[in-house]
Design the sequence.
């Protein structure tokens, strides 16, 4: 975000509501000072905000020097604006084109290639220099295009509009741009307004705000202007007498005084955390700061910052560069430092041979293909290197609302007097009354032909008629149409088009979300949409399951609305009275908070105690519980007195709602556990709700003792109070942290890093952004805030935790494949270095060393032959047991001991066979021993033997590299049994053991055709006139093909023998069989084949 952007991005309602005046409302008095109130300085302003929730509104107004009845004067407001500056928050900056370009060139391998290119041009080898130049440009362009496309995709998810606010100035209500607000301004808000700054509320009526983007609270928060708190360190979400910048008014009206703007707001503090580069202490001296910046710049240029793979490859490139210099020194030393033209070319040729020029291009293309595959799984990659990084994740820190849960309320159960317990199961779309099923006392109901009993019908009538929501099939609207509370971003909100003050009409706006896997099942009427308050929608959908929705009842029965008593925060109840024209009586339907409805029920105290106990039990399980009641009145009853109407009610039952887990969440969490990944839930929600969801999705073990569960769940304030040393002494970090602040999430990430863990952080709110940036891989939700997207490396477009698991699987596939093509490229380089170093002994008649391979042959093999084979290896499918293995060792990275040993063994064998083929033709074949003169530069009559030997060597190395591409598909399995499952009884594609080589090589089509193309192109390179002698410096061969193909047989036999030794002796991957799901479940302590966990 640019500096001019703000988080308040939706225009507020244009209606100017009256100032609320209720009992207990603060009537401000004019401060004793004259109108030119002194400015509260920044330090003082911050102090006022820090303790604003512990002061009365009058005290806050006095501190800020403002008359709440008249507001600031225009002159004073302008003066304060000059002092405080505009009300703008600096967010996480998006990437510029230059930054994206710099990211492509900031790695050691590119710098090594640039140096090699310069040397090639320096010695007038324009062909080699041009080829390397093309490689460098290709590397940069492919990477730039990939990252640029990702940034454009993220930008398309954003939309910004400039908000205005209703502000009291000069005694009159004016519309002021939010950017011009100052501390001390009196702001009035109504339904649909976006809070423009942090406010200490002065008064309010039924005020509820959506703070999900900031605190993670899944439901709108009731505001209590009259309350005063004693705890200065109260969690942000519990400061209910404050309204926070960027939150949305969901119902009611209120007035507040601005106590903080811009970077001093809660959102601003988060933005400040985002802009902090690191946690290192600042250098105090000028030279120290300069040195620190210089070191940081050098590390960035050399690519020594980033993901583990980026850092490893950059270090590897520096090692290769040092090795190239060493090899060049060896070449020059053999000529006693008589560095003439040929010696210099040979030295550079050896240096070029040790550098895998195509590595960056292959890696970039492979990652780009992986990014495309992940996009189809609803994961957009902002930083391409994050794909491989996510494969090494050891811990996932996930938000709850909208990620593990559906982000919408659904009725979970109802305890109905005289009926029993009604439960809703497996709801995939909370708005669809045909989604999931209903059980009564554990028995599944067939609702198609079900006729409710009178008691059940009365319960359903009550929750349907005492309800102002509307649920209906959507016409031309996507399946995941949801209401405004699901949208945590303050950017793309729509104000309510209903200005009633009741909480029942909080959510009148419709906002669409991307289709998720959990909502693809559409009910009989197609996709469904809903308007209204989340609780009422959930109750209405339950009634509609029995064909007793509000519209159904009003259409079938002769009833009319006689009176309505809306929800009020003082009585916590809502009541409607309907006239039944058929029976000639009034029906009173009431719902509300249990503790407020119980006193007006006409039942014994003992029964009330039992009801309260049942309600508390459900509430402890994370459910929001309402009490349902009813009574009848004669037609001559007075309907004007609410207290009379809401008395002597008949108890019907309790109903509990909650934000249900996504259907996929439990399975996805289990997949993570099977893969050796620990899942943590960090949420702003309450501890009871968080614990209940964690148990339901499997983050917590339902069979574990209470002592174990208590240790795994912590309040954020308790976790925050621990020092780093105390956190590090904990045997394991908590799996669930409730009431999280942004600092809590950052602290958890830092604690994981100190334990050498590699973590993914998910989030959607502004409050998640600092942790998203701090984490190894930050994943923002597609419907989340723009700030969260800017701070992340990936965006989950469907907000689904299961998509994270797919991303991890793709990352593991990519990591495995990077090892495979690294192995292939390095085998080629090692064999060439061996060939060229020992080739120093091949002297011509002028006592000059003869190239066993010409520089162009080396570049052709490295850039063309090997590149496409490496890309093919990068496209290998995921191994069947990739998600059954623990995460790979990040300290070791891609260069495992097995890879290092294998590449030297393979490279030695391949290089030796190339030496053998050259020596056989040059010294044993016809004309052997005569290596001519000047054969490194051009062809002459004395070069026939050298050119034929060189062509044979080229053919040999090409053929061996083609075979190597298939051999390195697995480091220990035989090429003739790469897929053991395919030869087992019962396999759908069973082939005889030993013959599986044919489907194995055909399985990866790209690799198959890359091998085929490499084989076919080899012949014109050897035989085409001009190209063979003038460009590649070799000539046509005949009987020598037998040497090359003979080397292939020897090579395959040697490699297969080495793999057999590895399997026999249990070396490297040879000690591992194909892991099964049962193996992984046993390792994770899960019930094999089940959904629960074993008791430990």
Sequence:
């Amino acid at each position: 975000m640019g500096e001019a952007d703000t988080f308040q991005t939706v225009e507020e309602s244009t209606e100017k509501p009256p100032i609320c005046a209720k009992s207990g409302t603060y009537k401000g008095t004019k401060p004793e000072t004259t109108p030119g109130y002194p400015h509260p300085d920044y330090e003082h302003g911050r102090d006022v905000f820090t303790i604003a929730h512990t002061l009365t509104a009058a005290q806050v107004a006095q501190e800020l020097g403002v008359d709440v009845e008249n507001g600031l004067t225009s002159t004073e407001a302008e003066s304060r604006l000059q002092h405080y500056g505009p009300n703008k928050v600096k967010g996480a900056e998006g990437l510029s084109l230059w930054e994206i370009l710099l990211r492509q060139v900031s790695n050691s391998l590119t710098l090594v290639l640039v140096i090699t290119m310069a040397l090639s041009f320096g010695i007038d080898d324009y062909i080699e220099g041009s080829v390397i130049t093309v490689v460098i440009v290709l590397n940069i362009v492919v990477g730039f295009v990939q990252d640029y496309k990702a940034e454009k995709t993220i930008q398309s998810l954003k939309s910004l509009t400039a908000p205005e606010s209703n502000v009291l100035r000069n005694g009159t209500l004016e519309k002021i741009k939010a950017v011009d607000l100052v501390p001390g301004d009196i702001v009035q808000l109504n339904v649909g307004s976006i809070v423009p700054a942090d406010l200490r509320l002065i008064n309010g009526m039924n005020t509820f705000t959506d703070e999900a983007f900031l605190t993670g609270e899944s439901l709108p928060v009731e505001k209590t202007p009259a309350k005063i708190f004693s705890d200065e360190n109260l969690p942000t979400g519990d400061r209910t007498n404050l309204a926070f910048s960027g939150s949305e008014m969901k119902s009611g009206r209120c007035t507040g005084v601005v106590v903080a703007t811009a970077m001093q707001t809660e959102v601003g503090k988060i933005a400040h955390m985002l802009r902090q580069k690191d946690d290192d202490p600042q250098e105090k001296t000028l030279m120290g700061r300069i040195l620190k910046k210089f070191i940081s710049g050098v590390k960035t240029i050399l690519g020594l910052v980033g993901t583990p793979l980026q850092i490893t490859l950059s270090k590897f490139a520096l090692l290769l560069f040092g090795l190239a210099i060493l090899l060049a020194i060896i070449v020059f030393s053999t000529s006693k430092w008589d560095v003439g033209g040929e010696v210099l070319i040979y030295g550079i040729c050896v240096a070029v041979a040790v550098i895998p020029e195509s590595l960056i291009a292959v890696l970039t293309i492979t990652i780009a293909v992986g990014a495309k595959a992940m996009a189809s799984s609803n994961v957009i990659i902002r930083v391409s290197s994050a794909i491989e990084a996510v494969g090494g994740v050891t811990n996932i820190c996930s938000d709850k609302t909208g990620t593990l849960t559906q982000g919408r309320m659904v009725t979970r159960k109802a305890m109905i007097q005289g009926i029993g317990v009604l439960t809703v199961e497996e709801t995939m779309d909370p708005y669809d009354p045909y989604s999931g099923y209903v059980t009564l006392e554990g028995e599944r109901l067939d609702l198609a032909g079900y006729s409710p009993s009178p008691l059940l019908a009365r319960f359903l009538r009550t929750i349907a008629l005492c309800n102002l929501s509307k649920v209906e099939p959507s016409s031309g609207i996507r399946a995941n149409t949801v209401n405004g509370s699901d949208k945590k971003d303050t950017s793309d909100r729509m104000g309510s088009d209903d200005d009633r003050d009741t909480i029942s009409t909080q959510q009148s706006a419709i906002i669409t979300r991307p289709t998720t896997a959990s909502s693809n099942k559409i009910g009989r009427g197609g996709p469904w949409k809903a308007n209204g308050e989340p609780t009422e929608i959930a109750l209405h959908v339950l009634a509609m399951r029995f064909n007793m929705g509000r519209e159904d009842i009003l259409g079938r029965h002769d009833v009319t609305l006689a009176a309505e008593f809306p929800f009020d925060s003082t009585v916590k109840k809502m009541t409607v009275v309907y006239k039944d024209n058929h029976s000639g009586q009034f029906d009173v339907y009431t719902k509300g908070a249990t503790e407020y409805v119980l006193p007006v029920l006409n039942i014994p105290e003992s029964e009330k105690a039992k009801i309260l106990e049942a309600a508390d039990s459900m509430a402890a399980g994370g459910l929001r519980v309402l009490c349902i009641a009813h009574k009848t009145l004669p037609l001559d009853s007075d309907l004007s007195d609410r207290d009379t109407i809401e008395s002597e009610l008949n108890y019907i039952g309790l109903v509990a709602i909650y934000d249900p887990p996504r259907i996929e969440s439990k399975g996805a969490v289990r997949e993570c556990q099977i893969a050796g990944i620990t899942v943590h839930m960090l949420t702003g929600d309450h501890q009871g709700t968080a614990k209940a969801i964690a148990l339901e999705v499997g983050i917590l073990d339902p069979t574990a003792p209470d002592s174990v569960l208590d240790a795994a769940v912590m309040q954020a304030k308790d976790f925050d109070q621990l020092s780093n040393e105390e956190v590090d002494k904990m045997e394991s970090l908590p799996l669930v942290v409730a009431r999280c602040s942004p600092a809590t999430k950052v602290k958890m990430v830092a604690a994981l890093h100190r334990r050498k863990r590699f973590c993914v952080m998910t989030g959607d709110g502004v409050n998640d952004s600092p942790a998203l940036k701090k984490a190894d891989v930050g994943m923002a939700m597609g419907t989340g805030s723009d700030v969260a997207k800017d701070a992340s490396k990936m965006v989950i477009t469907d907000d689904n935790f299961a998509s994270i698991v797919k991303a991890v699987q793709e990352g593991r596939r990519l990591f495995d494949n990077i090892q495979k093509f690294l192995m292939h490229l390095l085998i080629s380089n090692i064999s060439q270095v061996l060939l060229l170093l020992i080739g120093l002994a091949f002297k011509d008649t002028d006592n000059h060393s003869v190239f066993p391979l010409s520089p162009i042959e080396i570049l052709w093999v490295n850039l063309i032959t090997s590149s496409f084979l490496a890309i093919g290896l990068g496209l290998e499918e995921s191994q069947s047991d990739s998600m059954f293995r623990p995460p790979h060792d990040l300290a070791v990275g891609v260069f495992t001991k097995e890879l290092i040993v294998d590449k030297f063994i393979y490279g030695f064998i391949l290089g030796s066979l190339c030496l053998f083929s050259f020596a056989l033709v040059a010294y044993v074949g016809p004309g052997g021993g005569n290596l001519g003169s000047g054969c490194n530069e051009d062809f002459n009559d004395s070069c026939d033997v050298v050119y034929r030997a060189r062509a044979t060597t080229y053919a040999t190395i090409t053929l061996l590299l083609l075979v190597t591409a298939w051999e390195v598909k697995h480091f220990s399995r035989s090429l003739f049994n790469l897929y053991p499952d395919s030869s087992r009884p019962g396999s759908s594609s069973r082939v005889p053991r030993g013959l599986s080589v044919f489907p194995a090589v055909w399985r990866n089509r790209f690799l198959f055709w890359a091998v085929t193309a490499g084989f076919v192109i080899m012949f014109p390179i050897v035989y085409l006139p001009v190209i063979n002698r003038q460009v590649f410096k070799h000539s046509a061969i005949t009987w020598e093909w037998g040497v090359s193909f003979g080397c292939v047989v020897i090579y395959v036999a040697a490699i297969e023998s080495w793999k057999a030794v590895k399997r026999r002796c249990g070396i490297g991957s040879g000690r591992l069989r194909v892991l099964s799901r049962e193996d992984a479940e046993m390792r994770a302590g899960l019930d094999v084949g089940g959904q629960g966990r074993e008791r430990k």
